[in-house]
Each structure stands twice: as structure tokens, then as C-alpha cells.
Amino acid sequence: MTNTKTASNVPVRTRFAPSPTGYLHLGGARTALYSWAYAKHYAKVNNDSTKGTFVLRIEDTDVERSTPEAVQAILEGMNWLGLIADEGPFYQMQHITRYQSVIAQMLLEGTAYPCYSTAAEVEVMRELARMNGDKPRYDGTWRPELGKTLPSIPSAIAPVIRFKTPQEGAVIWDDLVKGIIKIANSELDDFIIARAVTPEAAAKGDTMGVPTYNFCVVVDDWDMNITHVIRGDDHINNTPRQINVLKALKATLPQYGHLPMILGADGEKLSKRHGAVSVIQYDTLGYLPQAMLNYLARLGWSHGDVELFTTDELITWFDGSNLSKSAAQWDNKKLNWVNAHYIKQASIEQIAAWLLRHQGIVVTHQLKSAIMLMRDRAETLLQLADLIAPFINAPIMTDALREQYIIPNQLILTHFLQALTQLSENTWNKNNIATIVKSTLEQYSLKMPQLAIPVRVALFATPQTPSLDAMLTVLGRNETLNRLNINLNTVLNSI
Ligand code: GLU
User: Fold this and answer.
1) How far apart are CA 87 and CA 55, in angstroms?
2) Band of residue 273 on the pLDDT scale cut at 50, 70, 90
3) Angle between helices 448-460 and 468-475 (to 10 degrees)
4) Which of 16, 59, 173, 219 to mutate to test the pocket of ligand 1 (most atoms within 8 A of CB)?
5) pLDDT tens, 290-328?
6) What are phi and psi of 111, to 5 degrees?
7) Spacing, Cα 91 to ligand 1 middle (Å)
């Protein structure tokens, strides 16, 4: 953000205001995260939770496209990331009478007016403007002016309500992200703030239709005392309209910050083509919420060149400065790197909970050790599940592996197996196994890979694993000896 005007002792109130028409996509998740972190920052620096409040508002007035499933998906995504609202969720559909009463007051004050032009008539006005090289717009037929005579009211038409946009001057705001933005009022038309009442609603006695998106946002931001509106820059065109309405209502203006969008690595708008687009899908794919939070936060914001930070550090640093003005690019490689870092640090309980929930794996004492041993190699928890799978079930040995690694090394494997049988269940530990590995190498003048690779293949069906002594310790005596035996017997039987 270009501006850090927020005095640290003034209460900050931010909001996330999703329309529940789909899942929580990555851009929405980042907007929610920034709004949340900004509020939490001011609560933290003041050591007073009332100094930073994060509000969740569900903008469900588009009744055809809004669904309860989408509300659930959004809440689920936010919960997963730990973005818990201090207030809400509030639902706009529950505030309709409030919006309508504000409009009724505006009609009385003359800042809004009924418009009886039909949709077809407005289309003609727009076409005429286009033909004259102007922006398509409503021509103000029903706009009341001093000394102007309005057409006579057609009885069969239910009017929409339009906002009386000032015709002179400009709307100027100091955008928290983009700096000064100025839009001339002549660019804006008298937009609709309430739709026409439907015949069914009129039959029930309603006199006004459902208010429109741009209006509901304004009333809610005002009623909820929102001080900072942080949202995607696809809303920049709405902002001058909303500011004009707020001014007409004599409301205090919030500060606006418009975040540039997130692009795919190819510079195109992020879409399914680039992989997962819903934040919660990343849970299924094996990303930790703390990794996602870190990655999303860094995607359009920086704190020096720090790439990895805790949520607490994010809150400490996220004061509204250092937000990027240019679009951010999604980078799966970097996300994987961040996730690998958090997998190394995660508690076993968190990893175990994920493995149970997504893979049905019950993490035993042995599997805990396997996780500790393998987690440095995993970029996702899905990969970690694959890495610990050989500790759960003996992996399938392919003919190719058998021919390349087992058959030529039968003797070595047999000697190693015999040496290992000297260890009992009680003496089966890393040190003793290391001693046996060492003595086998010495006895047969072998280099480590000459022994380690065939053993790894025989036990885990892969030539690459962490050190033999560690792997065998975790696999356990019985399973190690069994697998070696089975592989050697299979080879003997096939000769
Ligand atoms: N409901 C709008 C959306 O989902 C956001 C409105 C706002 O943040 O002002 O795009």
C-alpha cells in the first residue's frame, strides 16, 4: 500500500464480502487473508482486540446465483486457513428492509429518484450514446432538476430507483494499494439502486424492489463501520459509485485498497487450466493451511526478502505497507517449496489427522517414526503418504527391479540377511544395524551402494531411501527379514 495513514490507535474494521456463487477461489482467499491480517495487525500492536475487527459478510442478494452450498464452501475454505471472523457471517438478504428504508429516505431527500423508463427504452438511450461516440448510459429522462418538467408517470410500469449522481466534479480517493485514483462524475451515470418491484411482491404490498449490489455494499459498509475496504481491483469501477452514495448519505468514507489479480505462470487469468482453483482443493492435494497462508500472503505482499514466516509474524508485519501494485503470478514450484518447509515443521498430530482424513491411514507408533524419517522428502502430504506406504504394505516388486537389483546381488543379500538374524527383537536398533551394515561392507569389500541399493530394492522396491540403518529400524525386524527372505526365495524358485 502506498499509504499507511492508519493511526495505530484508531480501531480498524475490515470485512470480507464474498458472493456465495461458488467455492472460495485463490484470489478471494487472498483478499480475505489480507483483510483479516490487517485487522489482526492493529489489534496486536495495540494489545487490544477491539482495535482490529474482521467482519464476514455474505453478499447473497443475487438470489438466482447464490447457494447455501457456496456459503458452506466459503466458510470451509476460511476455516481451513484459520481466517475466523470476529463478527458475522452477516447475510445481506437479511438486511433488505434496512436498504429499502435508506432508499426511502434518499427519495425524500432527493438524492435518488424513481425512473419509469423501460429496459427497451434504456437500450435505445445507450445505443444513441454509442452512436454519438459517448459511453452507453441512461440519459436522465426521469432525473428531477430544478425547473425541469418530468414526463407524466405511466401507470402500468413499476419504477426502478436510480441514484442521482453529481454531474460536476470528480471522485478522488487515495487507494491503499494503487495511490491516487480520480474518476470524473461525468463518467458515471445515474445507476439503479433498487430494482422494480415484481408483480408478486407488489401483490404482497411491497412498493420497492430488491436493492442492487452497489447499494447494499455501501449501506453495509456504513452500518458495520468498516474503515478499510480491501478487495480485488475488479471492483475499482464500483468504488466511485459507492463513494458518491456514501457522500449522499453523509457517511464517513472508508479507505479503499484494490488488490491486483493473481495470474497463472503463463500470465493469463488464473483458471482451472492452471491446476486447482478452489483453496480447499489444496487441502485434498496435501498442502498444509499454514503453507497456503504463507504462500498466499507473499503473493502480492512482501516483508523485505523474507519468504517464510509464521502467522504471528505476518500479523506483526502486515501494516498495510509493501503491497504490490502489479499482478502476482501463481508459482506451483514455490508453493511446493513453502509446503515442504511446513511439512518438516508440522506436528505429527496434524500430519496424522490429514493422513486419516484423506487417505484413511491410521498412524501407528511405527508410522510416526516413518513420517519423521520420510517427511524431509515430501513436498505434499500426498507424497508423504506414498513415501510411508512401503512401511504399511510390502511394495510390489517388478520383474525389471528384480532382474536389475536382486538377481545379480543374491549372495550379498543372503549374507546380509544372515548377519541381521543375529539381532533379536530387543537388540534391533539403529546402532546395531549400522554395525552390521559396516561389518558386511568390510567382510565382502563392498562400497555402501553395492549393499544399500539391492537391500533398498528388496525391502522398499526403490533404490533411493534415507540411510539403511534408519529405514530398517523403522521397518522392524520381522518385516525386514520376511521381505528379504521372500525376495531371495522368489529368485531361487524362479531359477
Ligand atoms: N461481493 C463482491 C464479490 O464477491 C465483493 C464486494 C466487495 O468486496 O465490496 O466480488
Assistant:
1) 5
2) confident
3) 30
4) 59
5) 999 999 999 999 999 999 999 999 999 999 999 999 999
6) -90, -5
7) 13
Contact 10, 38 (CB under 8 A): no
For residue 230, report the distance from its CA to the centre of ligand 1, in Å: 10
Kind of pairing between the strands at 262-263 and 192-194: unpaired
Return the best residue to mutate from 57, 224, 231, 245 for the ligand 1 pocket (most ligand atoms within 8 A of CB).
231
H-only helix segments in 346-409? 348-359, 365-374, 381-392, 399-401
Q: What are phi and psi of 182, to 5 degrees?
A: -130, 130
154: pLDDT confidence band, cut at 50, 70 and 90?
very high
User: Residue 370, CB half-sphere, CA atoms under 13 Å: how many?
Assistant: 23
Closest atom of ligand 1 to 221 CA is 9
Compute the distance from residue 233 Cα to the ligand 1 centre, in Å. Answer: 10
Kindly state the average pLDDT of the residues 254-270.
Answer: 92
Q: In angstroms, what is the span from residue 106 Cα to ligand 1's centroid?
A: 24
Residue 257 and residue 136: Cα distance in Å, rounded?
28
For residue range 427-447, what is the model confidence (pLDDT) as tens digits? 999 999 999 999 999 999 999
Please tell me the distance from the alpha carbon of residue 471 to that of residue 480, in angstroms, as a whole number.
10
Tell me, in angstroms, the distance from the centre of ligand 1 to residue 22's CA: 13
Mean pLDDT of 446-472: 97
> CB–CB of 264/329 below 8 Å?
yes
Distance 276 CA to ligand 1 centre (A): 22
Closest CA to 59 of 215, 200, 192: 215
Q: What is the overall mean pLDDT for the chain?
A: 95
Rg of the chain, C-alpha, whole Å? 32
> How far is the C-alpha of 266 from the C-alpha of 251, rounded, in Å?
43
Using CB distances shorter than 6 Å, the residues near ligand 1 are 17-19, 59, 217, 231, 235
What is the reported pLDDT for 338? 98
Asked if the bond preceding 199 is cis, omega within 30° of 0, the reply is: no
Atom of ligand 1 nearest to the CA of 21: 4
Ligand 1 geometric centre to CA of 237 (Å): 12
Distance separating alpha carbons of residues 465 and 452, to the nearest angstrom: 9
> Going by CA atoms, what residue is nearest to atom 7 of ligand 1?
17
Return the exposure string of 229-264: e unless at least 16 CB atoms fall within 10 Å of the residue's CB, then b.
bbbebebeebbbbbbbbbebbebeebbbbbbbebbb
Measured distance CA(129)–CA(137) in Å, rounded: 7
Give the mean pLDDT of 251-273. 90
Sign of the alpha-carbon torsion through 3, 7, 8, 12: negative
Query: Ligand 1 centroid vs 104 CA: distance in angstroms?
Result: 24
Atom of ligand 1 nearest to the CA of 59: 1
Q: Which atom of ligand 1 is nearest to the CA of 15?
A: 8
